Predict the structure.
Amino acid sequence: MLSSSASATLRGIDGQRVQVQVHVVTGVLPSFSVVGLPDASCREARDRVRAAINSNKFKWPSQARVTVNLAPSQVRKEGAGLDLAIALGIIAASTLDEKAAARELDEGGVKQPEHQRLPPELLEGYGFVAELGLDGSLRSVPGVLSRVAAIDDLIVVVAPAAAHEASLAGAETVRCAASLRQVVDCLKGIDSWPDHPPVPKIDHRRNVPDLADVAGHPFARQALEIAAAGGHNLLLVGPPGAGKSMLAKRLPGILPDMENEVALVASRVHSVAGLGIPNDSLLRVPPFRAPHHSASMTALIGGGSGRLRPGEISCAHGGVLFLDELGEFAPGALDAMRQPLEDGSVHISRAHASVRYPARFCLVAAMNPCPCGLLGSVEPCRCNEQSRQRYMRRLSGPLLDRIDLRVHMQRPSANQLMSSDKGESSQSVRARVLAARAKAHTRGFPSNSLIPAGQLDEFAPISDAGRSMLKGALADGRLSARGLARVRMVARTIADLADEDTVSETSIASALALRARPVLFDSLGVTHV
Amino acid sequence: MSDWSANSYSAITIADDHELAAFIALAGLPGLSPGRFWSLLALGAPSQIWKRVAAGRAPRHGRAVDAARAWPAWCRTVDPGAELDRHRASNTTVLPFGHCEYPDALLDDPDPPPVIFRQGPGVLEDRVRVAIVGTRRCTRYGEGVARELGAALAQRGVDVVSGLASGIDAAAHAGAISRVPARTVAVVAGGVDIIYPKRNRGLYRQIAEHGALLSEWPLGSKPETWRFPARNRVVAALSAATVVVESGCKGGSMYTVDEALRRDRAVFAVPGSIYSPASAGTNKLISDGAHSLYDFDGLLDAVAPLSGPSVAQAELGIDSWLLEAVGWEPVALDTVVRECGRTPSEVTLEVERLIGVGALRRLGGVIERVT
């Protein structure tokens, strides 16, 4: 006897429709096999499904060979999301039709009780995405958003906890049920589908800290605003306790909410990575990811030897990737970020699969200027040249080259710390950022950091005074030819924030100052980076 | 040491290219100290000495016996003619003692190098020279002083002499070469083609182009440990005064100081923190009676009282509310914004303008007046 039901698995951040076919033959040596490239967690479904079927008062077919085929068979199936479809398929395939039931009775067997029956045709038009507990309960799985999107023409049945995420994916109808038993009863019309659990309304920006808490640091605040408005990468250099992390954490608060398309992609990544998304909507507040510096290359970039997983750079898609103590990260892991920084996505290839994860994020890095942390501040640095050099060697020049804003922060003075003055609030800064981003949109780019160098003359004309200042910086070696285009992009953003059409000398000066090489390199006679 | 008003060495005459080739080859003998070279040269014409050395008939005495034992084998690997061609091809000038371009300052030295190999335009006899020396393991402070001192001396028309090592040496050369005309004299402990440390590649190239890159040894000689003290004696001998910027109580810089004192030249030491190991030697020198370099003017007045004045501020058009506000101490940009009541953008514009005209320097989040 045969049954067929629909479910979905993951390929990168996209869902892939899977047809679960179950074949049950009785009167042979009992066996249970799953074919069609299941991975380890998928093959474990056998044990979960058998337990769930038994504990929900269904009957495992006796003396039967059960074969489960997951089609298309060339796609690797991962995770436990197919459990429900497999269990229902087995129940349906072991349900005897009238002829078979009559034959069974003739041969002296017992009548199959009604509560163990599920006619296979009832599975048509449904898709099932849930993991089963041993007690038959339905559980949510990572990547519901993507999986459901792949079978959105069907009525999708998920666990209650995943009901809301599933309805965000745009499926026609989403049903949820607490247990395998309830699913079968609802399919048969004995029971009615329960309502979705209620979703509490929450303020998504509630947990984002406010810029008003940061007093002083006028230049660092300015740089943060520029980074938010133009999507430029930012390096904060300063001694321990200067407030680098504090400032970086406030960047999402001045970024605009993600637009639909970006929000959907970011939400899918978060769902696939198992990070979860807000209960009532797609991820709207730009994510803030701050991996510890012990993170491996795979953790940062994505991949993995068994199941492929998006890395931190993809989890930060649409938001901020904050790398504290930049110098402590493994150099290889940092270098691997160069290509995603250029392309806005990362392509990961393994022997068994290759996927593309989105990775357009704003990189914010923080580091000490030298081992003692005092280089570039008013107090003298206590390091010798060799230890400074060792420290500097950990940084990759090409990565640094992709960071357009470099700011030195000072430790705040006692007066500043004790004063009750508040800084400008995130809300009013965000208003300026939104206005500047709107200007970038009218040029046809989501942010100024994406303007091609060839179109700078058209989109970022410079005043005469600004032009001569750039010329001076190029002539005395403070600016490289490569840096010129980057400075012009940043200057465009600064001009947008100041509501200038032509980029003024002041904006050029600010962009130049932000591009100035970090003091670490300055002191060692390294040429411009 | 007695009073060395003159030495007893006479000019080395080289008859032709054949002799010159043999002379270069001899200079490259392994372990050949300047003193030993002088005693070899007393034996006759270079080509004859070369033959004797190659045949193992060179007189053996003193401490260099072991090295001399290896000479015949070494001679078989060297073709004097090819050595000469190599020096000519790389524009390396060979200056035997007494050559018309041999530095005057070394002619009546107690311990003159028998030969100088040179790249670059050379030592200008009409310019005052000052040595700036110090440790490789310098601090930021020492590096800053060396760089600024190098630049200030160059501005006054004084040539900076140093050893082109990392640390203080490199900073002093870099400071000097940053001014116009870009001149400085470097004495290295290997062949002038051996860049050591590798990081100084850029400086080697610039000095070979604009200044003088000197060595006592032919191309290809490795910077072996024993060559460094000899190199330091040439640094001291070439200079009217020696400035030690940072040094521990022991080390090459102290050797340079000894050589300078032996020649009765002025020694200046830059005072430093008593906690800093890099200043232990200089502080001790001051306590022992060296001139304390507590400001640049003292040194400049001592060695170059009549050299050109620095360009006046007004001529450069440096007139700014910012300069008046910052004073002469390094100050954080954040502080400037707070105290002047200007926006970050206004401050940045002024800072960039002043950096452009060279009146201000930025180090991370701190600015400092330069002139």
Summary: Residues 129-303 of chain B form a domain with the Rossmann fold fold (CATH 3.40.50.450). Chain B has three domains: 12-89, 129-303, 313-369.
